[in-house]
Known about the structure:
By secondary structure, the protein is α+β, with helices and mostly antiparallel strands.
Amino acid sequence: MQQDRNNSRRPSSSIQQNSARRQGKSRKAYDWTQDRRPSNQNRRRTQGYQEQTLDFSGGNVTFENHSSGYADNSIQFPQQTARRPNNQNQSRRQGQQRSQRPRQNTTAYPTNGSRPRNGQRPQNVQSARRPQSGGRYRPTEANLRSPARREGRKKRRLTRAAVRRRRAIRRLTALALLLCARLFYIQIFCHEEFAEAALSQYETALVGIDGRGQILDRELRPLTGAVYRYFYIIGKESADQQLNVLLEELDAVRVTLRSSRYEVYRTERFDASIHKRLREEYSVYAFRARTRYQNQQTACHLIGYLNEAEQRGVSGLELLCEEKLRAKSDRLLLESDAAGRLLRGVAPRKAKAEGSSAADAAIGQGNIVTTLDLRVQQKCEALLAQLCGTAGTVPQADAAAVLVSRADSGEVLAAASYPAFEPEHIADYLAEDCEDNGCLLNRVLQAAYPPGSVFKLVVAAAALENDICPPSQCFTCRKTAEVAGVTLSCSTGGENGHGRLNMREAMAVSCNCYFAQLGELVGYEKILETARKLGFGETVLAGFPGETAGSVPRDADCGIQDTANLSIGQGALLVTPLQVQQLTQIIACDGLLREVKLLRADPEKRAQAGTICRASGEACADKRVLKTETAAALREMMAEVTRTGTASRLKWEVPARGKSGTAEASRNGAPMKQCWFTGFFEAADGTCYVITVLAENGDSGSSTALPVFYELTKYLAPLTL
């Protein structure tokens, strides 16, 4: 019975084969059309189980279906999933049985039992599947391309843990890429910066040594860095009384250094014996280097000074061209050990130029070329020193300023202001109260003064430009004149005044009564309009640090009573020497406004001194602000000043034209006079020079400022620039 049960569990196809072999009979053709097994869906709908009875009485196996109950010799096949084989042999047997089991086909073949020929597919067959060896189905190319098969494929759904794992991997990958990019940037692009930072931990930068680009004059003569000096670096632990004695013998001056370990001394003297003792007995580090400034620095107000702590420009050209000057950095760096002791035998190293290459350094990258002429600048400073009594002469003024420029190009050749200062000891000047003498004030462009009689040129220009009064118009001077309730006196006309005179004669003798009456006729509106057109109330060197625009009153703030003071250059009107210089240059240039230049952009000099920056902004050359006839009439009036007027007492070696002025002012409540003289002359080589002189607290323009103008004409006339 047990054997029968085991045999009954085999598939029907295997039973048929075994029976046919025992009986020696051929296998009966199986009718595939009758193999209609219900699908899983139909099986679920059928109640109970479908019973199959195997009859082993004959050679053939027949199947009988029963709706209920079981026969004694019957086997029930429940519709459930077959178990997975437990071992390899069992799996092989099941594989063989599975390959021999009749295949269920959804497509019916012909009922006559015939098979399709080889190479032919049955009609109305959607898919003909034939198992291969081993009972494994291998789809054909046609089946792979079947849309039904592609649609039947379902994507594998990921678990939440797998999704979180993938997201974590992506984030870690992105973070790793960012870190790699950052490391690449630091190693490649920031290599030099971090290398310098590392070196700075055991290096000492010296203050007082010229580590910036040079400021040169028009002929490439150095205005800065022209002096070499000796430097002694001493550790503070080695300082004693004997060391101080040796330094005093060298006239050494202590230099401020941003270090708590060392002291630096600078001297212009060199003594071989003292130098040897300092190095051998005290381990002093000594060397020779270029210094930024010198004693009595030339053009100190224009050049400016540096912040000692950061070595950055604070004023003047040092501040204006800070970016350009810092491009060349040859600061000396001294290497030391962990204890701060300077390493012997290691020469000072120059810091690498910031933002410059070797090619740039070869042509002087970092230098700027000015329009100044060193010779003319030194001459102007010497004349101002004599004027103010510091050169062994009687002082005639408390402070002064002078400007020299070329009318054809607008280039400033000299701009001197007195009193001066020493940029090397700027800390001492900043610590003291310098407001009394204003030594740090650049009077050329940072100080504003009442113009005095120099402004009569503007009043005359307003009358001529508006066709209000011709040059031949005459007024009577009776020593005094009353305009809009204001009484003015004429100091140059004697007891009875100048009498009746025209505009040219009144300009020559600087008659206040004449121009007071002319100003009343023109009106303060036209006068202020002409003043603004000529550049008053605006800066001349656009962008130059500290330049003031002066003060020109508004029309609403001015009244009829102010016309009298305005006509003679008094009242609320304030101008700078640079603005007066521009007015004179306009008259000399036939009414054209040309840009006043302080920095030169000569292509021939650029190749030697580097790129040139400009301080005056956009060019405004050849802008007409006065009529040609007006400029010619004003030049004739200024020529009469030197022939018969207030400047005729001097013997002019070259024909010159000018105008003097004396303005009344006050300082700390005390009255004082601001003395002016401005003019121009033409040298033998055809060059037209414009000169403006200002003297604070002098006697008058013709007696205080005029001599400086006269000496400069004699100096410049034979000079070839």
